[in-house]
Amino acid sequence: MIPDDLEQMLSPLEYRLLCELIYEYCGIRFEESARYMITRRLWPRVRALGLTTFTEYYRYLKYSPKARGELDELVERVTTNETYFFREDYQLRAFTEEILPEIAPKDHPHKRLRIWSAGCSSGEEAYTIGMLCTESRHLAGWDIEIFGNDISKKVLGMARAARYPQSAFRSTDKRYIDRYFKAVDGGRYEVVDEIKKLVTFGHLNLLDSVALSLVGQNDVIFCRNVMIYFDEAARKIVLKNLFKRLRPGGYLLLGHSESLLNVSTEFEIVSLKNDLVYRRPG
Ligand SMILES: C[S@@+](CC[C@H](N)C(=O)[O-])C[C@H]1O[C@@H](n2cnc3c(N)ncnc32)[C@H](O)[C@@H]1O
Q: Is 215 within 8 Å of 204 (Cβ atoms)?
């Protein structure tokens, strides 16, 4: 039950303390303007735990033996998971028409391509990459592995189920739907096995340098619309982690409103016909 005086339930101090916890855990910074949204999303959780104030909830998050699992629960409720298939098509064109031909030459010794969709949400980005790689004439006979990670277990469950409502297809050409999806219940479409088998998903926090060291070296990393919610310090940590997981000469693709200005000088900027992208020198 949402009380009428919900706005009063979370004091400015309680809000600051909760925001600090969220920030330390996953890098997302909330402004004062998000206080009501956070209150609305977290109050039902406070009540479900049998607690009566946000101060009690904060103590639970700090000192309960279940604190770690509760941080996961909290983050589920405050992350923005908006995504859809074939998002930012000019960038996908840069990937297929300019990046793939360069990183997949005919005389490549291993014919193995690894791509990471970092902050993949419910999987649309990772599967889109799978479809594009499948259709690329440069990758005929190649072994393609796509890895998607997210901090939210809920969206990863949706990614693994690979069943999507109409809204996920707002910028998808019908040709792809016909070729790579089958209609299932409730007007939804499921990704076909041919694409599913290229993609695996894992629960990983992009700030967790130790856990990320288990991710192998990648030829291309997509990290789009993830760091827009982070501050500079958190972006720096994530970019260091991504840099280490990109092979020399590999590409980093960010969302259209994101850049590395003030956060990293390790990558070089590459001006392609269709987009500006980043590359690990080497
Ligand atoms: C807006 S979605 C972007 C999805 C996709 N990359 C796209 O551009 O369509 C951002 C995703 O980043 C995830 N995320 C936020 N902080 C994260 C972190 N520290 N580690 C891993 N994933 C994170 C969120 O859970 C969310 O699903």
A: yes
205 lines ligand 1 (CB under 6 A): yes
Candidates 263, 200, 255, 256; CA nearest to 223 is 255
Assess whether the C-beta atom of 156 lies below 6 angstroms from ligand 1.
Answer: no
For residue 253, tell me if it sits in a domain. Answer: yes
93 & 70 share domain:
no
Ligand 1, residue 88: give the atom nearest the CA. Answer: 8
Phi, psi dihedral angles at 242 (to 5 degrees): -65, -40
pLDDT per residue as tens digits for the range 178-227 = 999 999 999 999 999 999 999 999 999 999 999 999 999 999 999 999 99
Q: Among 45, 78, 111, where does a domain finish?
A: 78
To test the pocket of ligand 1, the residue of 150, 164, 208, 235 to mutate (highest count of ligand atoms within 8 Å of its CB) is 150
- Containing structural domain, residue 243: 89-279
Model pTM score: 0.95
**Residue 148 beta carbon below 6 angstroms from any ligand 1 atom:** no
Q: Are 263 and 235 in contact, with CB atoms under 8 Å apart?
A: yes
Structure tokens that stand for 117 in this block = 């969709």
